[in-house]
Design a protein that fits this description.
Layout lengths: L6 E6 L3 H12 L4 E7 L2 H11 L3 E4 L8 H11 L4 E6 L3 H9 L4 E5 L8 H12 L36 E7 L3 H10 L7 E7 L6 H9 L5 E4 L10 E4 L5 E8 L6 E7 L11 H12 L3 E5 L8 H9 L3 E5 L8 H8 L5 E3 L1 H9 L3
Helix pairs in contact: 2-3, 6-11, 8-9
Subcellular location: Cytoplasm
InterPro entries: CheB-like (IPR008248), CheB_C (IPR035909), CheY-like_superfamily (IPR011006), Sig_transdc_resp-reg_Me-estase (IPR000673), Sig_transdc_resp-reg_receiver (IPR001789)
Enzyme class: hydrolase
């Protein structure tokens, strides 16, 4: 039995079946108490005002008031951590909800919430994650929308440009929104490539890459095994896989640099693994390697950051003032493997200035 006061949860879903299943799952944890259930956003707002929950699980498709309207009003009136529960079919909606201030999401195979063991574990873990959030973080959804006329028309990167920098980014909870802000600041003339290990379900990484692709000046794709790494392009590691950067011929960044995508091995503690990606970037890019550790739970990236520093590269961690969860960047700072701790906007500018 935990000695902590249980987190008070509100379950919001228009399906009585889903509300019952989610409430039963959360109620099965000694650390969570379900204090209310609501069938639409309007009812949920009334219960939030009355019950003042610590965390909310939210369906996005609801009658009367949908999840997006609920999020906008909630974050303006009474900011509360929100975990979105959405089907695989609603990938774009999930990222829109994260931009509106939701903390994280749980993906379900279809409209109904099937309480299998994997989903049970995931939803409890993500609700309990709320204990590690800064109180103000959910209240400040980041301004990631591009200004009018800023969204670019996707074009193929110009081939033949020298690859001068290789930037590796590792992130988890809060990472999608943080990455959107960073990519808003990267110019078209960026003389490097970016490789990303974002902890995310496999059916969402392609949609997320497409969303990033509509920001900033570089092309963004979900990485495929064998992709050539070229300037002005970014690669998102597919979910449930790990990614390395390798040189197949030539020397360092002047050679033929390729992406290697494959299943995790026994030494990979996280999937995708920032540690594994960072280590490979250190080997390929040396002093031209840049490691960036953003918001997230755990310590993924610390071992890889140490390898980048040993190779003469640079490591930047998101500062506590902007990180939704300071676990990953905080672990890197405590380990002494970080050159600089910067707020999120400054990280975007730091990468942009590599141009």
């Amino acid at each position: 039995m935990t000695s902590q006061v249980p987190l008070r949860a509100l379950v919001v879903d228009d399906s009585a079946y889903n509300r019952r299943n989610i409430a039963e799952i959360l109620g099965g944890s000694d650390e969570i108490e379900v204090v209310g259930k609501a069938g639409d956003g309007d009812e949920a707002l009334r219960q939030v005002a009355q019950l003042k929950p610590d965390v909310i699980t939210l369906d996005l498709e609801m009658p009367r008031m949908d999840g997006f309207t609920f999020l906008r009003i909630l974050m303006a009136r009474q900011p509360t951590p929100v975990i979105v529960v959405s089907s695989y079919a609603q990938k774009e909606n999930v990222f829109k909800a994260l931009e509106l201030g939701a903390v994280d999401f749980v993906a379900k195979p279809d409209r109904q919430f099937s309480p299998d063991a994997t989903i049970r574990k995931e939803i409890i873990q993500k609700v309990l994650l709320v204990r590690y959030l800064k109180p103000r973080a959910p209240a400040l959804p980041r301004a990631v929308s591009a200004p009018p006329g800023h969204q670019r028309v996707p074009t193929e990167p110009r081939l033949g440009l020298p690859l001068r920098h290789l930037v590796a980014i590792g992130s988890s909870t809060g990472g999608p929104t943080a990455l959107l802000e960073i990519f808003n600041r990267i110019p078209e003339r960026f003389p490097g490539a970016i490789v990303i290990a974002q902890h995310m379900p496999d059916k969402f990484t392609r949609t997320f890459a497409e969303r990033l692709d509509r920001r900033g000046g570089v092309r963004v794709v979900e990485a495929q095994d064998g992709d050539q790494v070229i300037s002005r392009k970014a690669y998102v590691c597919p979910g449930r896989m790990c990614m390395d950067v390798v040189v197949t011929s030539g020397n360092s960044l002047q050679g033929d640099v390729r992406i290697k995508v494959g299943p995790p091995v026994s030494g990979d503690r996280y999937v995708p693994s920032a540690d594994r990606l960072f280590r490979s970037v250190a080997q390929v890019a040396g002093t031209r390697a840049v490691g960036v550790i953003l918001t997230g739970m755990g310590d993924d990236g610390v071992i890889g950051a140490r390898a980048i520093r040993a190779a003469g590269g640079t490591v930047v961690a998101e500062s506590e003032e902007t990180a939704v969860v300071y676990g990953m960047p905080g672990a890197a700072v405590r380990a002494g493997v970080v050159n600089e701790s910067l707020p999120l906007s400054a990280i975007g500018d730091f990468i942009a200035l590599l141009a």
